[in-house]
Amino acid sequence: MLTKLRNCLYMALLVSSMAAASEATVKQAMQKKYPAIQVESVAKTPLAGIYEVFAGGDVFYVDENVNHMIVRGRLIDVARGTDLTEERLRALTAVKFDRLPLDLAFRVVKGNGKRRLAYFTDPNCPYCKRLDRELDKLTNVTIHVFLYPILSQDSYEKAAAVWCSKDRVKVYGEMMLNGIPPKTAGACDTPLEKIVAYGRQQGIRATPTLFFADGQRVMGAISVTQLEKLLDGAR
């Protein structure tokens, strides 16, 4: 019995080392063929011979020798009806909430403010305006708003004007919900350059981008129902 147990443990360790070696092989092949790409991680997928590569804030798939590559594709678990690519992206791009530069954001507090959410937004982003209508329906949440003007110079000027306003929450809300542009000149010191630099470092390439208290990153305009589910799940 003891001999059998030892053999099982040996086989488990052997399989584990083989998997690690294969993942290391894929990473080496990627770095050799694409030296300009910084590969952050490689992992096996449920498909035999296909590996997940995480690089540049995105997930794509390759074979062991990196002779073939699937880019912008989604790996779907048909039985569960689950987008495995989306699940992995959320895990791989997660950021510890308390490590976000929250001092560079302004806060919108609703109700008791117990639930937490960080929001990277551009004043000229139509999807942000759609999301703001959904965020406006939330209760008992603190939203840390990061002005992230990456679409145009006009975005930067509007973001600066919001930051320099006496009531940032009111001016931002009027702009995004009612289309009323800020009246204040953006002549004060702002954290916009620091926010943009941080966003680029974290691979935030589009707005809106949300971070929940559990570190999960979600991109795009989602419904209030989805927001509530994610906020409650992040506690």
Summarize the structure in words:
- This protein is of the alpha+beta class and about 240 residues long.
- The protein has 2 domains: about 1-90, Nuclear Transport Factor 2, Chain: A (Roll), CATH 3.10.450.70; about 95-235, Glutaredoxin, CATH 3.40.30.10.
- Helix content is about 40%, strand content about 20%.
- The chain has 7 helices and 11 strands.
- The chain has helices spanning about 1-35, 85-90, 125-135, 155-165, 170-180, 190-200, 225-235, and strands at about 40-45, 50-55, 60-65, 70, 75, 80-85, 105-110, 115-120, 140-145, 210, 215-220.
- The strands form 3 sheets. A 5-stranded mixed β-sheet has the order 7-9-8-10-11. The protein has a 4-stranded antiparallel β-sheet with strand order 1-2-3-4.
- Helix 3 (about 125-135) links the parallel strand 8 and strand 9 (about 140-145).
- The termini are far apart.
How would you describe this structure in keywords?
21% strand; globular; alpha+beta; Nuclear Transport Factor 2, Chain: A; single chain; 235 residues; four-stranded antiparallel sheet
How many structural domains? 2
Mean pLDDT: 89
CATH architecture of the largest domain: 3-Layer(aba) Sandwich
Task: Based on Cα principal axes, name the global outline.
Answer: globular
Structural class: alpha+beta
β-strand number: 11
Largest sheet: 5 strands, mixed
Helical residue percent band: 25-40%
Task: Kindly summarize this structure in a few lines.
The protein is α+β, with helices and mostly antiparallel strands and 235 residues long. It has helices at 2-33, 84-92, 126-135, 153-163, 168-178, 192-201, 224-233; strands at 39-44, 50-55, 58-63, 69-70, 76-77, 82-83, 106-110, 115-121, 141-147, 209-212, 217-219. The chain is built from 7 helices and 11 strands.
